[in-house]
Amino acid sequence: MDLMKAVDEVYAPKNDFPEFKAGDTVTVFYKIREGNKERVQQFRGVVIQRRGSNHTETFTVRKMSGNIGVERIFPVASPFIDKIEINKRGKVRRARIFYLRGLTGKKARIQEKKF
Amino acid sequence: MQGLIGKKVGMTSVFDEDGKNIPVTVIEAGPCVVTQIKTKEHDGYDSVQLGFDDKKEKRTPNPMMGHFKKAGTTPKRKLAEFTGFGDDIKLGQTLTVDLFNDDTWLDVRGISKGKGFQGVVKRHGFRGVGDKTHGQHNRMRAPGSLGGSSYPSRVFKGMKMAGRYGGKKVMAISLRIMKIVPEKNLLLVKGSVPGAIGSYLIITK
Question: Any CB–CB contact under 8 A between B23 and chain A?
Answer without folding.
Answer: no
